[in-house]
Write the structure tokens for this entry.
Amino acid sequence: MNIYEFADIVDAQIECVRYPNQDRWAADFRYCEVRTGQSGLLGVSGGGSGPQTAMSDYVRRIRGQRLVFNATSSTARREYLCPDYLEEKT
């Protein structure tokens, strides 16, 4: 399964942003954090010199992690386990 198929399954939007003043790219799911233990959440994004590099870095960071979307919402909060075999491209 690739990251785009996973995004469709969990109904999530992938963002890939260029920071021209820093000459780098960042990629992540919108409103998504990674669960770190019982109650901790950590914002995670991938980075790189280009969009594909940033996306590959993000996939590497979230593989096998529990992802929490809209963590502060009482009605829209969702949690998913990201597959260990997630790939960055089709």
About this structure: The two ends are 8 Å apart (CA to CA).
